[in-house]
Structure formats: structure tokens, C-alpha cells
Give the backbone structure.
Amino acid sequence: MPHADTLTVVHHDDTRTRFTDVRYQLHRDGIRIWSADGEHAITDILMTQAYRHRQSDS
């Protein structure tokens, strides 16, 4: 299951919902997100943006 430091969900009406430090699963009916606030299931998705910030090796 992918992990994201920041995850933005863009809805069909162009509103955005942002989450931090989450695990998520994309599926046919939308996205399921697990965060510190609990589990979220969102079905009205136009687009998602997930970022994972990693420390450099140098």
C-alpha cells in the first residue's frame, strides 16, 4: 500500500482535499485513505497528487 507525505484529492467540482502522512489505495470506485484521523473513502475524484519526500543520500 503506497505511503504519501502529502496527498491532494481534486474532486469533480474542482474543490481539493489535502491529507498529510497517509497510506492510500486507488480502486475503481475512488480512493481509500488511512490517516491519523481514521479511514476515509472518497468516490468523486477527478485527480490525485501524491508526494513522498525523501532524504537525499549525500
